Amino acid sequence: MPPQCRTTLMTIVALCVVAQVLIMQEGAVLPADGQTPALSSALAAAPLADRSGTPPPPLPPPPPRPPDPEHTSHDAIERRLSSRGLGDAAVASKFDAGGQSAAAGDSAPRSQQGAAAEESAVHVVIGADRMHWPGVIAVVNSIRANTKAPGRLRLHLLTPIADEAAFRAFLQCNGLAAAEDSGVEIVGFDGQLVPLLKVQTKLTNLESPLNFARFYMHRLFPSIHKVVYLDADVIVRGDIAELFDGSLPGGELCAATHRKLTLGAKGVASLRNEKLQSQFHSRYGRALPLADRGFNAGVFVFNLKRWSEMRLTAEVEHWIAANNRDKLYMLGSQPPLVLAIYGAGERCQQLEAEWHLDCLGCMGAGRLKTPQQLDAAKLLHWNGPNKPFKTTAGARRAHRSLFDPYAGRAECHA
Prior knowledge:
Radius of gyration: 37 Å
Oligomer: single chain
Structural class: alpha/beta
Helix content: 25-40%
Largest sheet: 7 strands, mixed
Number of helices: 16
């Protein structure tokens, strides 16, 4: 066979191979004449080899394939991920709300958004035994009604561990669901954690272990650094996020409103006992500053991380045991809290007075407030025996008009 014929034949064979490859890539169907468009155009464009045997020029590349909507749409990706057991969660981390692929620098994946949301969460702890459950409903209702950022709220409701099921039913009766997506959590508290208690006054239920649960919050919530602790006899009329965000800006241990009375003033809250003074000085090497003004721990912001690092629960338990033995003070959880904080050489950040108008449930003239005080208050506290939610016959319920708008349903019983 002459060389030029042999070269032409090799060219035709090569073109046939290329055409077959193109057919396989394109998935095309041969037309009736048995030639593919690509092969026809290639044959028409390809010059015969010259007599010197120079090979023909390379074929032009095939045209790019248009994008297939079936492979790029949000729904198509979801179908494929679902078939692999991934589904919406995987798609959500890849696509934003508009179904567009999230490029670098766009909105963060949902897991990161969740972490950011938890960092900005407002943690509020409310402790109550069965007697005070009606108060919890009002606290929660008032917090929710008066916040501008309900999505930030994380409400942790403490109750005796044996009463969790009954408390859950009580909340549901009042229209409050305890679930992760509702921002409400029930936490059972084991009263066995608290040492034996001997309270010297019977003004209220100061011996309830729930009054002492605040000293164990670092164990109950180990991943939370800051909480607002509220007694179950308060109404929050301001935005609780404002109180939370404005507290402990420098990492302080605690924040509270200061009382008018000093630590050494006469009365049930006094810490003037000489035995107490002697034991405080012996333990810490300094005197308890009786001229300092005390604080009410019913509205209290805790730095749980620092509380844990300073081992202040052990100090509280020391003073509870010492009081049981030597009768050093009269009240329940307030004195050991004060002694532990002052013993550590700490002071609490002072909250604005509007964040704690107290003594609404006190006996005598202390419960009387001016209209100006009531109007300005962002938080009302019914400390004292005259709780607004009492149901016993003949009970005195002070300032009910301020409480009732947030009260629970009358048919729900604790």
